[in-house]
Amino acid sequence: MKVKSSPKNETVSGMEVSVRPNPVEIEEKARRALMARHRFSLKLQISLGFFLVFLLAVGIAAVMVHSMYQVEHKLEFLEIINDYVIEIQQARRFEKNYFLYGTNLDDALDNVYQARDIIERNPDELKQILGKDNHRMVVSNIADYQRLLEQLEDAERRQENILEHRRTREKIEKELREKGHQMVSLSQGLMNRLRVSVSETLLRSRMIHIYFLALLLIMVVFNAYILVSRILRSINRFTKYAQRIASGDFTPIMPRRRFRDEFTDLALAINKMIQELEQREEGLIQLHKVRAVGTLTAGIAHELNNPLNNIMLSAHMMLEDYNQMADDDKKDILNDIVSETNRSRNIISNLLDFARQSSSQVEPLNLASLIRDTIKLSANQIKLAGIRVEFQAADNLPQIHGDVQQLRQVFLNLIFNAIDASKKGDKIQVFVIPADEPDYVAVKVVDFGTGIPEHILNSIFDPFFTTKGKGKGTGLGLSVSQGIITKHGGRIKVSSRDGEGSTFTVTLPVTTIPADLKSM
Amino acid sequence: MSIINISSDVYEEGRKIAQKTAEAMGYAYVGREILRGVAEKYHLSETKLVDAIDKAAPTLRMSLKLRKQLMAYIQEAVLGEMLKDNIVCQGLAAHLYVLGVSHVLKVRILIDPEERARNYAQTHNMSVKKAEKLLAREKKLRQQWSFSEFRFDETDPSKYDLMVSLSQIDPDEAVRIITETVCSRKFQPMNYSEKCLKDLELAARVRVLLMDKYPSSRVQANGGNLIIETLGLTREKRKREAAIKELAENIPGVNYVEVHFIHDFFRQAAESFR
Amino acid sequence: MTDQLEVLLLDDEPIVGKRLKPALAKIGCNVEVFENPRAALDRISEKEFDIVVTDIRMDEIDGIQVLEHVTQKSPRTKVIMITGYAMMSLAREAMGKGAFDFIAKPFQPDDLRKVIASAAKALGSSIDFTAAGIDNA
Predict the structure, then answer these.
(1) What is d(CA C54, CA C62) in angstroms, rounded to the nearest whole number?
(2) Which of B264, B266, B274 to mutate against chain A (most A CBs within 10 Å)?
(3) C136 occurs within a structural domain
(4) Confidence of residue B92 (pLDDT cuts 50, 70, 90)
(5) Looking at CA atoms only, how far is residue C10 from chain B in angstroms?
(6) Angle, nearest 10°, between helix axes A132-158 and A123-130?
(7) For the residues A503-508, what does the mean pLDDT come to?
(8) For residues C79 and C50, what is the distance between their CA atoms, to the nearest angstrom?
(9) Which residues of B touch C87 (CB under 8 A)?
(10) A127: pLDDT confidence band, cut at 50, 70 and 90?
(11) Does the pLDDT of residue B8 top 80, yes or no?
(12) Which residues of chain C have pLDDT under 70?
């Protein structure tokens, strides 16, 4: 799906008229744009992140189990070697006793057999741990030692002559001591090496634990960071949207990222809400217009009574005196009736113009003449209230773009408010001037009435806020006005001093692009 | 030379004050006695007419439509009496439909709600709390009805010229205040207010006549000129307009009839400002 | 028509005076017509009228002010208010301030004639409707 580019306004020799796009269409367009992206949901990101952390944890567990197994293994062999060393040390002790006190060699041989047995029971592992050369040396050492002991015992058993026996014994003794010493020191060396190796393994497994934990921590933090920042960024974005919507800007949310997720669903829901809000606001504007028409009608109904009375009196007098009347008098009366009828028609035609329900159209317009018409429209209210209106417009003001009906409604409302705030004999000033910022035109409606107390100044634009009595005001006027002005890309501001009057300033952009399209 | 209209939450209290006031002023008292005549004229039961005035909400026996019809009969009779001038009117809900007539003094007799609940509890043999709840609910329903039917909230003080609270002011004192007030020139009849009252009376008569066939019609009179609004389908328009015109033009006092079909945007808006 | 009623008619609508002057003359009223309230007030200060008919909604000075001026100047003068802006509150204000009657525009010449007749009655003189050739007295 491709997003359609915003519609270009057709320009026909400086006279642009564009019908406001339907909120439903705008919403549909935004929806399509939002849905056109690939989905990368938060759920997926969360699952993925946790899965990775889990994988890492499994890895760590595996490595830990493995290193533990290794340590255990090494400790086992350390024990074996230890047994072996004890056996051979025992053997040597017996051997020493034999030479010193002439005890028998059986015990020594027993120990040697035990030691050999230990060595031969686990040949492969020993080979692996001790290394082939060492292993061979250990095996040959013990074998030699055993052989020498056996020779000695043999000689003992044969009971040769003393001399020969002693000689043999001395010869063997020397060799035996040498071998024994060699054997013990070798095995002790081995044991030491094994001990070092075990502590190395322990150290390594400890370091592995630390490193992996650190890695895990980094992973978790990183995962949380990207997750949280994604969520926070979206939430911030939506907070801004909410503020924007609250200020009356009903532009739908458009895509800001390359993918879509749960927040897209939220955006869709908000767009739907905006659309309904906008439609509801249209309704509010209409309702408010009905009230304005009501106010105007009340004034005009009274105003109409004057020409009607003139017609009534004239017609009745003509009826009464028809026969005695000169033709000129009759003509005079009929002329009066005609002109008073025209006067009546003029009184209502402005109102009819305003009240007529027309589709909203954005067109170039002259603000000064719009205000002048609006003042004329409210002339009866102004007269009824006994108030003077001063109107001033700067020369050569640029045109603005807007919806005449809606803008007139705004200014009518501001004038009504000013009238309500004023006392009999007060004046109201209305200015149309260039605004302080370039490319904006300002309309100021100044009254010298009661003013707005400071504590309610902030809430006067809130919907349903009213200071007028029950049944007098809906509290919608300023809220609806603000909505209309925001839609036109303008602003409405108020400054007021309690007891000295208020100034409402409406600024509208001087633009050749209708406000509606600008906001797309 | 005035009309005093007295309304109250409690009929009996209002009646006492109204009768005393009528006596003091030498005016005629117009109360629910006139309903007998209405009942006979339209072959209705008198209690139903009283219910139409008193009841808070539509009941099984009385639909909104029937109530509207009964109220139209009552209005016709009451406004007819009012044309005679110098009367004290009470208990006929006139405060709901006699509006904008400057020589009608609108008085509301206030009864302390707690006292009222106590009395109600005693006579109906229930706890005070229950009575309070019941009365509050009734009041709310009545408010809803009067607002939907007459665009009028009868508890709104701004709709009255004088409110007298019987818990603070003795009945005799209240009568004195009312009679003194009504003697002010402000409540004297004049060309404009008499015209307003005549217009209301004429409209009421026309309404009764249209009631049977076109109950949704709204009637406004202005010096013998009638504006009748009626709701209906467009295809009925011509026939309906002709029928209404014929009915209305035969009423004494009518010289011009205008029938507006469907709803009038302007008047709706203008009426919202009354 | 021995004792004519002296009537001042004030309305900023010229046609009102133009049509009512002959209408009231028929029932024996001597009518002075004013469109400017200030000029009318000056005239009231000069001369005591039997009846003052005044519009209410006018520029500068409104009818209520005229009424106050008349009641202060000459209490026996009957003041009749005519207005296109008839409302109950305005009617009561006018009556409370001592107006004799209050008529809403648009009205028929006879409406005013009847009111003037009753004002004349209250002043102790009478008006002969039949003499003016008007059918519904």
Answers:
(1) 9
(2) B266
(3) no
(4) very high
(5) 18
(6) 120
(7) 90
(8) 9
(9) 100
(10) confident
(11) yes
(12) 1-2, 127-137
Tell me how far apart the alpha carbons of residues B38 and B80 are, in angstroms, rounded to a whole number. Answer: 12
DSSP per position, A475-505? S-HHHHHHHHHHHTT-EEEEEEETTTEEEEE
Longest dimension (CA), chain B: 61
Residue found under tokens 């944890």 = A57
- pLDDT tens digits, one per residue of B183-209: 999 999 999 999 999 999 999 999 998
Domains, chain B, ordered by start: 3-187 (3.40.50.300), 213-271 (3.30.300)
Residues sharing a CB contact under 8 Å with residue A453, sequence separation 6 or more, in sequence order: A498
Amino acid at A416: F
Cis peptide before A255 (omega within 30 of 0): no
Helical segments of B84-186, H only: 94-97, 113-124, 128-150, 171-182
Mean pLDDT (chain B) is 87
pLDDT at A24: 76
C-alpha span between A416 and A494 (Å, rounded): 15
> What is the count of structural domains for chain C?
1
Q: What are the φ/ψ torsions at residue A422 (nearest 5 degrees)?
A: -95, 160
| CB atoms closer than 10 angstroms to residue B122 | 11
Chain B partners (3+ C-beta pairs within 8 A): A, C
Please check whether residue C24 lies inside any domain of the structure.
Answer: yes
The predicted pLDDT at position A40 comes to 85
Sheet of strand B218-222: strand arrangement: B218-222, B225-230, B256-261
Residue written as token pair 């209240």: B174
CA of A327 vs chain B CAs: smallest distance (Å): 29
What pLDDT score does A15 carry? 41
Rounded to an integer, what distance in angstroms lies between the CA atom of residue A497 and that of residue B3? 47
pLDDT at position A6 over 70: no
Report ipTM for this prediction.
0.91
A318 at C interface, C-beta within 8 A: no
Task: List, as one string, the DSSP characters of A80-110.
Answer: HHHHHHHHHHHHHHHHHHHHHH---SHHHHH
pLDDT for the residue numbered C82: 94
User: Is A136's pLDDT higher than 90?
Assistant: no
Q: Please report, as a single letter, which amino acid is at residue A261.
A: D
Please answer whether residues C11 and C52 qualify as being in contact, where contact means their C-beta atoms are separated by less than 8 angstroms.
no
